[in-house]
Specification:
Blueprint: H1 6-14, E1 32-36, H2 45-52, E2 57-60, H3 72-83, H4 86-94, E3 97-99, H5 103-106, H6 118-128, E4 145-149, E5 156-160, H7 197-206, E6 213-218, H8 236-251, E7 256-261, E8 267-272, E9 280-284, E10 303-308, E11 312-324, E12 327-336, E13 341-346
Helix pairs in contact: 3-6
The structure holds fe (ii) ion.
């Protein structure tokens, strides 16, 4: 069963007239979720490899275009080009496609709540995604949203966060411990917010929705250590609020939680160990069509294995027939442009 969005899912699949579209049966359990971030071209071997995979639901984590503008006409034209590209058309035709935005499609590099064109930007994003006219997403500020797929006992909730629309100005400065990640420093200023109170209250309600597995899609990395670059680590109070919410959910048996993220233009798996709870993972896949060209990866005490710095995509396999102590067996996988496995972890 797919809540909120039976109508949306079908619209996603039926609009556009592509011959390969099939109706998504929301009663079927979701077994494979494909995801990625950061697309700056319509033609790249990684996009071809993406389309060769099988998935039940796809999630795009932002930088779906590089708008980098305060001119609505420029943004609209870039969305039109992406929307009508063979890759995006095929992506939309195969299965439900969910998306949030990151800084470059929201508007500008590292932009947040003070980005001047955010209301128009939201409208253009929702047009790009063919969001139905009566969608709640068109009636509230920000593009956050939540979906539940599958029957009771096999329900996957996918929560798309908006880490841009409400995000306070990040603090900047010199931090001796950071070699090259960027100019940001963590701030414990309680007036600073990542999600904004309205989105936080909405999110707390979403964690009450019955689900057997919850996937949190955050455009920026959630678990990673502070690095100077954009990440939840820049706002430790907000990160703790999320960790507390996740822990409360898991402690009360309301489904395991897993994070996916993009943004960094490299891929890595982060793992946070918590007493009495399953390890918390954040699989970062970035970028779909770009190679990281900014030096070595920043330190991340939570990193498992190594980073990967060329084009990549993420896959999550859920085996509902094999249970672990924490729920269904889940395998996280990261593929390179040739389809090779660069990261794999059963959790
Ligand atoms: Fe990007």
């Amino acid at each position: 069963m797919i809540f909120r969005h039976a109508a949306l899912a079908f619209l996603l699949l039926l609009s556009g007239g592509c011959a390969t579209r099939r109706a998504f049966d929301g009663n079927q359990p979701v077994s494979v979720i494909a995801f990625g971030s950061c697309i700056d071209t319509n033609s790249h071997p990684m996009l071809d490899t993406f389309l060769k995979q099988h998935w039940d639901v796809a999630v795009m984590l932002g930088d779906n275009i590089y708008a980098d503008t305060t001119d609505a006409a420029v943004m609209r034209a870039k969305y039109e080009e992406r929307k009508h590209s063979p890759f995006w058309q095929s992506l939309r035709s195969r299965a439900p496609l969910l998306a949030t935005w990151d800084d470059h499609d929201f508007g500008w590099n590292d932009s947040g709540a003070n980005y001047a064109m955010k209301i128009e930007s939201q409208r253009l994003f929702l047009e790009f995604m063919d969001e139905p006219a009566d969608s709640e997403r068109r009636r509230r500020e920000g593009v956050y949203d939540s979906y539940v797929f599958g029957p009771p006992g096999q329900r996957v909730q996918i929560i798309l966060l908006d880490t841009r629309y409400f995000r306070s100005v990040l603090s900047t400065g010199i931090h001796n411990a950071v070699p090259s990640g960027g100019r940001y420093v963590p701030s414990t200023d309680t007036n600073k917010t990542m999600l904004g109170e309205t989105q936080w209250l909405w999110l707390e309600k979403q964690f009450q929705v019955p689900a057997d597995l919850r996937l949190i899609a955050s455009s920026i990395q959630f678990i990673s250590e502070f690095s100077g670059a954009e990440a939840w680590a820049n706002m430790p109070n907000e990160k703790k609020r999320m960790l507390d919410l996740v822990a409360r959910t898991e402690r009360t048996g309301r489904g395991r939680v897993l994070f996916i993220s993009g943004d960094r233009h490299w891929a890595e798996l982060s793992r946070l160990d918590r007493p009495g709870l399953p390890p918390l993972y954040d699989l970062t896949s970035s970028a779909l069509t770009q190679k990281h060209a900014r030096g070595t990866p920043t330190p991340n005490q939570y990193r498992e294995g190594s980073t990967y710095h060329d084009a990549n995509m993420g896959l999550i396999f859920i085996d509902w027939d094999h249970r672990t102590a924490y729920g269904p067996q889940i395998t996280l996988r990261l593929l390179d442009a040739a389809g090779g496995v660069r990261i794999e972890k059963a959790i």
